[in-house]
Design goal:
DUF4376; two-stranded antiparallel ribbon; 72% helix; DUF4376 domain-containing protein; single chain; 4 strands; mainly alpha; two-stranded parallel sheet
Length: 258
């Protein structure tokens, strides 16, 4: 009986130990599960940290590249700044040269302008002298103000400001046709004419004369016409000389040319 009780006690102790072992095993299992979960979390955190590290490394690499490019750009800017400074210095020298050239050009322009003004004055003097010489030459030729006027279109033209048309018989007369003859030509033609013809004199009386007498008469008439023309020319010359002394247009127009 005692042995049975001991076995029951041992069995009870074994059951308690087993329950305790089961509890411990469960606790260990829970701990293991928690450790596994923690390990998984640690793995995830490790992967995240690794990704962050890789990202940080890439950013660092990109920053390094950007820094290198910035340094290169800075070096280029420094070089460009030096070149710009040199160009600015050259531009300043060029500007100074241009300023000197402009000042010299202004001086040259002033000299040229002064010469031009002198030339213009000389040309004005020459033009005035030319006008005076032209006027004087007209007066010396006896033309006076008539040289600048239009000539009348016919002997009946009385347009104001026009000069009378000169002719062999005075101002205002002109020939439409011209015939040349002489005593010799008349005599030559008379040889082929009749020996006698009837001539009407000033009193309308018939006069009979031979061809020789007619030739002499024609020659005398021709000579009389020449003498008459000489007289007309002399009178015209005197009228012209008298007209040359006049200067007023109204007086010239009223001048008697008969």
């Amino acid at each position: 009986m005692k042995r049975f009780e001991e076995m029951v006690a041992q069995a009870q102790q074994s059951a308690e130990a087993a329950a305790k072992s089961e509890q411990n095993a469960k606790s260990h299992a829970d701990n293991a599960a928690g450790s596994a979960q923690q390990t998984a979390q640690d793995v995830t955190a490790t992967e995240t940290a690794r990704d962050d590290a890789e990202r940080f490394a890439e950013n660092a690499r990109q920053d390094a590249v950007a820094t290198a490019e910035d340094r290169k750009a800075t070096a280029e800017d420094v070089t460009s700044t030096g070149a710009n400074a040199a160009a600015a210095g050259q531009s300043a020298q060029d500007a100074a040269g241009y300023a000197r050239a402009a000042e010299q050009a202004k001086t040259d322009i002033d000299i040229t302008l002064a010469g031009t003004l002198k030339t213009v004055n000389h040309l004005s003097e020459i033009a005035a002298a030319g006008q005076n010489a032209q006027q004087e030459s007209r007066y010396n030729l006896g033309l006076k103000d008539a040289a600048t006027m239009d000539v009348q279109s016919s002997i009946y033209d009385r347009t104001e400001g026009r000069v009378a048309m000169p002719g062999a018989f005075g101002y205002g007369a002109f020939f439409r046709t011209i015939k040349m003859f002489s005593a010799d030509t008349v005599a030559a033609k008379a040889e082929n004419a009749r020996d006698v013809f009837v001539w009407g004199d000033a009193s309308n009386q018939q006069v009979h004369m031979t061809m020789a007498q007619a030739g002499e008469l024609v020659a005398a008439m021709a000579q009389a016409q020449v003498d008459r023309n000489d007289e007309i020319y002399r009178r015209q010359r005197e009228k012209k000389e008298a007209l040359d002394t006049l200067e007023d247009l109204d007086v010239i127009r009223a001048f008697n040319v008969e």
